[in-house]
Structures are given as C-alpha cells and as structure tokens.
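Sample 3 of the quickstart, ligand guanosine-5'-monophosphate:
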Amino acid sequence: MAGDLAEVLFSKSAIEARLSELAAEIDADYRDLNPLLVGVLNGAVMVMADLSRALHIDCAMDWMAISSYGMGTQSSGVVRILKDLSTDLAGRHVLVVEDIIDTGLTLTYLMQNLASRSPASLEIMTMFRKSDAMKIEVDVKYVGFDLPNQFVVGYGLDFAGRYRNLTDVGILAPHVYS
Ligand code: 5GP
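Result:
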C-alpha cells in the first residue's frame, strides 16, 4: 500500500511534531473553556484522535458526516448532511477539526450551518490546506500544513476508500489511477 505513493510529502513524525505545536496553542487558547471538538467524518478521524490526545485541557468530541468527493478526485460543491451532531451547540466553544480544506466549499456550508446553532465561539483547525485552491475565503484559526494543489492520500485521506490508514501523507503513483 505504501508502495502506491509516488512521493511522501509529510511523514508520520512531521505530522506528529506539527500536531503537538498546534495542541499547545489550542491548550492555551481554550483553557477552562471545555471546547467541543467537532470532527468531520471520515477524513478527520486520525487528526481528531491524535489532536485530542495531544491536548491537556478538558474537551468533548462529536462527529458529523457530510458528502464531499464521492469516488473521484474533484470537489463537487454538493454538500449534504449524512450524520448530524448529538450535542447542543448553544453556548459551547466549538472547534471544527478538519483533515483538509481544498475549495473550502464543504467548510463554508458547514460553518454557516453550525453558526446558526448559537455556539459561544466557532473556529476551525485543519491538518492540511490547499491555499491555491481556495475559491471561498474561509477563516481558519489553526493550520497544520499548506499543500501544493495536488490530490493527496494518507492520514485519514482516501482515494476510493483506500489509503486512509497510511501514516504518511503523499501523492499517489500514476499506476494507481490506470
Ligand atoms: P472542499 O469542499 O474544501 O473542496 O473539500 C473538502 C473535502 O474534500 C475534504 O474534507 C476531503 O474529504 C476531500 N479532499 C479535498 N482535497 C483532498 C485531497 O487532496 N485528498 C483527499 N483524499 N481528499 C480530499
């Protein structure tokens, strides 16, 4: 499986190191606020698991599933809630935990939806961001790494359901697509 990567962009250790820096910032910013971490399934599972364990503050976790790419590699812009939160957001300090922001279309929809539920605060943490591809201005408070505008897999990110369990993040070799 790891042999299907043409290039590793971020190794497991680079991801771990960056996550602990972000966790220290979030620890300081959310001290005594008991934030609710909202993970976006399925991609954010790895980030959520590692970020939450790198935090020292009290926090809660909840999950949403929304439609995004399906089986392809292009953002459709079509967003649908497949699974909603179980937690009431009123008065809560909410931190959305994302795997990757590409066009920002998914996140723009999600943020409007969550903002309407009266949280005390609403911020975004993403492990990866493709800055070149941002069609919509999304205010992201915590960013792991900025990426070139290429389709990547690993660390929760899939291609047709595969490669989420790769510990490194990289670019697929051309033979995988053919
Ligand atoms: P956006 O709406 O920002 O274009 O897309 C966001 C979602 O598309 C992400 O949460 C992720 O599921 C998927 N996505 C965007 N870029 C990539 C990528 O390079 N690789 C993979 N595997 N998924 C991506």
